[in-house]
């Protein structure tokens, strides 16, 4: 019986004497990302501003291998932009869009569709083969 009392007393003393073990941090103690350096603010160059911008560009694609046919041209004179583009749609018609944009009327587009004389051949697609049968013995 004395052994049980000694073990109980030792357990009570161990519980009373113990203290919380501080948790160990498993990583760096400092900030992960260093603070950014303050850079001087770049001055804005306003001398390159054009109050009346003007440009004009165009491109044309005629790819007989893929059947891709499209074109576009656009012109800007100040705040007025005008141009057009065309492309071949999936049903074989040519879509032509002519547009203008200005501060007074906004953006306006006129869309036309024209049939194409050349009919593109339809490519036959073969269905995929079924997967092979695997037998286990």
From TrEMBL:
UniProt keyword annotation of Signal present: yes
Matches recorded under PROSITE patterns: CHIT_BIND_RR_1, CHIT_BIND_RR_2
Annotated protein name in UniProt: Larval cuticle protein A2B
Ranges annotated as spanning the membrane: none
Pfam families linked to this entry: Chitin_bind_4
UniProt cross-references to InterPro entries, sorted A to Z: CHIT_BIND_RR_consensus, Insect_cuticle, Insect_Cuticle_Struc_Prot
Signal peptide segment: 1-26
Upper taxonomic lineage: Eukaryota, Metazoa, Ecdysozoa, Arthropoda, Hexapoda
GO function terms (MF aspect): structural constituent of cuticle
Cellular component, GO annotation: extracellular matrix; extracellular space
Keywords: Cuticle, Signal
Keyword Signal included in the entry's annotation: yes
